[in-house]
Design brief:
Elements (H helix, E strand, L loop, with lengths): L3 E2 L2 H23 L4 E7 L3 H17 L2 E7 L5 H12 L6 E4 L9 H7 L11 H8 L8 H12 L8 E5 L6 H9 L13 E5 L6 H5 L4 E4 L17 E4 L3 E3 L2 E3 L4 H4 L5 E2 L6 H24 L1
Parallel strand pairs: 1-11, 2-3, 2-4, 5-6, 5-7, 7-8, 8-11
Antiparallel strand pairs: 9-10
The protein binds NADP nicotinamide-adenine-dinucleotide phosphate.
The site of NADP nicotinamide-adenine-dinucleotide phosphate has 25 residues, from helix 10.
Length: 295
């Protein structure tokens, strides 16, 4: 079998076009332009690229963005000061702090300081809690990107065995939570799954992954999942982004797995572009919620 390639880049472009139209309608109706404030501390090259890509995406969608670049030596207190100012600035609708932060900064304290109504990454305890209760304010960007890709490629998860490998707060856990809901962001066929979450302490990982009709991998280990770990005809979603020399590769060994899977996401060009599209969605949503709360 040679797997169908699930083209995240094309789907992300469609979504971005939809958002651009919605932003334009919103601006016409509300006379307010949605605005995202991004904070970048230090000079990590990958983070600089991610932040730049987000800025460009905002501009193309008609969303304002402002970047706050801070030196590596910035203290937790200084960063908290900036966050408080952004929290109370009515013209800012979304705030994101690019991770990772330098080691000396208390990351938990910083993320907790972002006002939940502006927390467009959906990392705050309040937003995580709302999502797990099935009444999300915002959906976390990468897991939401996975759900959108599945839906728009016609892949239903309802009643299926779905295995998520990885249990991070950013990807694995929220994906499990979304897949478990009776209804997902794109309806009941887009969630409602029987979900298993595997991690580094899982015994006999292959015996778990080979049960999956839909296998989603987010572990940060280049080419880790090989063909023997995949059920024939499974759908495989590779969230991983790893740099090997000059090349970007996923957590799934694309060459071997595409011979057994029915469908697979490439890296790059799979989930990555959808993550940015979902950030735009959340920024627009934050602006809409702010307007609604003022009425
Ligand atoms: P993370 O915080 O490092 O978490 C990795 C998870 O994988 C942990 O739960 C860990 O288990 C598990 N794991 C590690 N080695 C394993 C193994 N050998 N077998 C089974 N489970 C294992 O990483 P993350 O933030 O979730 O990111 C994961 C990957 O996705 C990275 O490559 C990252 O770059 C990528 N990513 C991509 C996007 C995107 O937009 N496409 C967005 C975010 C992240 P323990 O909990 O037991 O340690």
């Amino acid at each position: 079998m040679t797997a169908t390639i699930l083209d995240g880049k094309t789907i992300a472009n469609q979504i971005r076009q939809e958002i651009k139209t919605e932003v334009s309608d919103f601006v016409a109706a509300a006379s307010v332009v949605p605005c995202l404030a991004a904070i970048l501390v230090g000079d990590d090259p990958a983070s600089q690229v991610y932040v730049r890509n987000k800025e460009i995406a905002c501009e193309k969608a008609g969303i304002k963005s402002e970047l706050h670049r801070l030196p590596t030596e910035t203290s937790t207190a200084e960063l908290l000061g900036l966050l408080h100012a952004l929290n109370s600035n009515d013209s800012i609708h979304g705030i994101l702090v690019q991770l990772p932060l330098p080691m000396h900064i208390d990351e938990r304290k910083i993320l907790d300081a972002i006002l939940a109504a502006k927390d467009v990454d959906a990392f705050s305890p309040e937003n995580v809690g709302l999502m797990s209760q099935g009444r999300p304010r915002f959906l976390p960007c990468t897991p939401h990107g996975v759900m959108q890709l599945l839906h728009r490629c016609g892949i239903e998860t309802a009643s299926k065995e779905v295995v998520v490998v990885g249990r991070s707060d950013i990807v694995g856990k929220p994906l499990v939570s979304m897949l478990l809901q009776r209804s997902g962001p794109c309806g009941s066929s887009n969630a409602n799954a029987t979900v298993t979450c595997a991690h580094s302490n899982t015994r006999d990982l292959s015996s778990v992954t080979t049960r999956a009709e839909v296998l989603i991998v987010a572990i940060g280990k280049p080419n880790f999942v090989t063909a023997e770990m995949v059920k024939p005809a499974a759908v495989v979603i590779d969230v991983g982004i790893n740099r090997l020399g000059n090349e970007l590769v996923g957590d799934v060994d694309f060459q071997s797995v595409s011979q057994v899977a029915s469908a697979i996401t490439p890296v790059p060009g799979g989930i990555g572009p959808l993550t940015i599209a979902m950030l735009l969605r959340n920024t627009l949503e934050a602006a809409k919620q702010k307007m609604a709360s003022c009425r």
